[in-house]
Amino acid sequence: MDHVQRKQIYEALIKSWSIETSSKWTIENPAKGQCGVTALVVQDIYGGEIKKTKVREAWHFYNCIDGQRFDFTEAQFNEKLNYMDIESNREEAFADTNEKQYSILKEKITKEFKLSFDS
Questions:
Q1: In 31-58, which positions are buried (b, 16+ CB within 10 angstroms) versus exposed (e)?
Q2: What are phi and psi of 96, to 5 degrees?
Q3: Distance of alpha carbon 34 from alpha carbon 9, whole angstroms
Q4: H or E element in which residue 49 lies
Q5: 114 by DSSP, 3-state: which?
Q6: Which InterPro entries does this one have (predicted)?
Q7: CA torsion sign, 71 to 85 to 19 to 100?
Q8: In the chain, what are the domain boundaries?
């Protein structure tokens, strides 16, 4: 994923995140609570791995694509994260979200990019 693609996906995510994709979402902090669902949808598009890092007492999920870390929801935190890059998976990331939130975000991103996925 190059810089242009990274910017495009981030802008699409900001437009797509809502209270429907995370119950923690706020207008002031749109990335809040979006890490699991975002990591899943980004993996659907770009492949790669899902990684996790402990933030306070909770797991924070993000992507690793071609050996490079992509954390599209890091803006939800006030502090700089100390990434542990612990191996994770879709099952763990799904524990942070639900099927409805995932389907809504995937549909919104699909429309933004005019992509089609096999469900």
A1: bbbbbbbbbbbbbbbeebebbbbebeee
A2: -90, -5
A3: 14
A4: strand 49-55
A5: coil
A6: YunG-like
A7: positive
A8: 3-113
Instruction: Give the pTM.
Output: 0.92
Q: What does the block give as tokens for 47?
A: 């492949």
Contact 107, 101 (CB under 8 A): no
The HSE-up count of residue 14 (CA atoms within 13 Å, CB side) is 11
pLDDT tens profile 35-76: 999 999 999 999 999 999 999 999 999 999 999 999 999 999
Alpha-carbon gap, residue 103 to 101, rounded angstroms: 6
**Residues 17, 25 contacting (CB under 8 angstroms):** yes
Half-sphere exposure of 29 (CA within 13 A, CB side): 14
